[in-house]
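Sequence and fold
=================
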Amino acid sequence: MTPAVGGSETFSTLTTLRRAQLANGRDADATKSLEKALASPTATPIAIHYLGRQLQAEGKTNEAVRVYQLNAKRFPGQWPVNVGLTRAYAATGDRKKALEYAKLAAAQAPDPVNKKNLENMVKLLEEGKEIPQ
C-alpha cells in the first residue's frame, strides 16, 4: 500500500503509514517508510523536528538523534534545527554541545514563548542540569 495525496507520497502520509506499520509489527516496512518520509520533498524542518520529538517520546533516542542530525544537514540554519540539535546532544549527555546549540536556537526563536523556553534550557544547561525531553 502506497500512501498518496494527489497521486504522490508525502511526509505526512508516510509517517502515518509508519505508525500503522509499527502498530502491526511490521518494523522493517516502518523503517522504509521513515526513510522515504525523511527524503520526501514535502518534509519541512518543523515536520522533521516534530518527528524527532515523537521518537524521543517513544524512547527511541538514537533514532531521534539521527533525525535531528539529518534535519540539520538538510535544512542548515533554519528554525527549529538548532533546537533539535540541543535535544540530541542533551539526550546523549553532551551538555557542552547542547548548550552551544541552545544559545543559537534562542537567538533564532521566532516568538517570545519559544525564546523563553530556550532561555530556560540555556540556564539549565549552564547549571549542569538536564533539560526536559
Observations:
- The mean pLDDT is 93.
- The two ends are 34 Å apart (CA to CA).
